[in-house]
Write a sequence for this structure.
């Protein structure tokens, strides 16, 4: 009886031990992590880093290959009005705006009326024509009578000469008055009508000086506004948009590559698959001390009026012959804290070495590698930032 009781006690204790072991290894309790183990894997030595299988899933590796890179420079800029083809349309004489005939964005022809003006100066000029025409007519009749009397010896010579002088003066004043009305835009037929009817018209039509588009309609163009010649803002501005400017901000390192007359290509976001031909028209003289960039002005032909001032644009200029270089995607290059650039070269399984690289241009999502990577080397083409961060963590912990 005592033996059986001892037997059951031993069997029960063994069962408890077995169950405890099973629970421990099936997830109930996990063995403690070894102290001093890094989550990202230890640095092998120097500039190398060893990854785990799980970490390798974050990195893509491919052989470095040569790509053709165009010898060109790019800069961002903006489309602007060609100021040399833009005219501020001021009134030639002071007066009140009666009516505006065009709105911003309208196309106009040269000579087409933009707005009308109630001009006191026009009334004065028309009145002068009427008055001088009457004096001219009177002096002409007096001179004709003087000629008849001088022929009959019935007029003194000095009176005859005075009649001639008066008529010549009246003729000159009359011609001057007509010419003044021409400056108001009146035709010879208009002046003849004013002279014949003795009726003045104070409405002065202000025409467009060129073919183009209305680019500005100022508040001064509102009816009833008193305007004067040369007093800003002009009621209207007209621009010939067959050419526009592209104002680009070019890095000062590229200044030696630029000269007036060079051909450039201009792209805008509205037409991503198209390029517009342009030429450098002016290279600025002052570098912005904050951005270290210089403004360059290009003249862009736009006969179809597709480019609108204010559009963001890209300026591209060829600077030499094309060259073959190693190209890495953006994900394969890292900008370090000191401003240098690096890439990661694969050395065996899961091991990478950091390599300093010299960059050239960026084209079609590829960075040109001038120095640091040789063709055929296996490189991390994606995940370089992860590798640099992992390396930095290891370095900071001293492991």
């Amino acid at each position: 009886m005592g033996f059986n009781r001892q037997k059951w006690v031993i069997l029960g204790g063994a069962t408890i031990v077995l169950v405890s072991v099973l629970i421990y290894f099936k997830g109930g309790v996990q063995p403690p992590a070894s102290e001093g183990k890094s989550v990202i894997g230890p640095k092998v030595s120097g500039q190398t880093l060893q990854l785990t299988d799980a970490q390798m899933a974050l990195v893509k590796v491919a052989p470095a290959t040569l790509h053709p890179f165009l010898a060109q420079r790019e800069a961002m800029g903006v489309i602007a009005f060609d100021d040399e083809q833009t005219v501020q349309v001021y009134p030639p004489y002071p007066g009140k705006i009666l009516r505006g005939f065009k709105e911003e964005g309208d196309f106009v022809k040269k000579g087409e009326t933009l707005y009308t003006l109630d001009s006191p100066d026009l009334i004065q000029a028309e009145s002068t024509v009427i008055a001088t025409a009457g004096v001219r007519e009177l002096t002409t009749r007096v001179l004709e009578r003087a000629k008849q009397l001088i022929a009959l010896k019935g007029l003194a010579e000095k009176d005859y000469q005075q009649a001639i002088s008066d008529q010549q003066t009246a003729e000159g004043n009359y011609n001057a008055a007509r010419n003044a009305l021409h400056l108001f835009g009146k035709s010879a037929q208009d002046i003849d009508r004013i002279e014949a009817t003795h009726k003045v018209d104070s409405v002065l039509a202000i025409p467009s000086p060129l073919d183009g588009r209305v680019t500005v309609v100022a508040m001064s163009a509102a009816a009833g506004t008193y305007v004067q010649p040369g007093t800003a803002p002009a009621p209207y501005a007209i621009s010939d948009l067959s050419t526009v400017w592209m104002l680009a901000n070019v890095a000062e390192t590229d200044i030696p590559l630029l000269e007036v007359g060079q051909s450039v290509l201009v792209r805008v976001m509205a037409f991503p698959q198209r390029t517009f031909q342009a030429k450098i028209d002016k290279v600025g003289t002052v570098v912005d001390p904050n951005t270290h960039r210089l403004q360059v002005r290009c003249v862009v032909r736009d006969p179809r009026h597709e480019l609108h001032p204010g559009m963001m644009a890209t300026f591209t200029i060829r600077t030499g012959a094309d060259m073959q270089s190693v190209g890495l995607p953006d994900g394969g290059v890292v900008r370090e804290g000191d401003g240098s650039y690096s890439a990661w070269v694969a050395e065996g399984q899961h091991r990478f070495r950091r390599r300093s690289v010299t960059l050239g241009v960026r084209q079609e999502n590829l960075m040109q590698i001038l120095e640091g990577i040789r063709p055929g080397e296996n490189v991390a083409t994606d995940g370089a930032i992860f590798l640099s961060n992992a390396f930095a963590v290891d370095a900071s912990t001293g492991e």
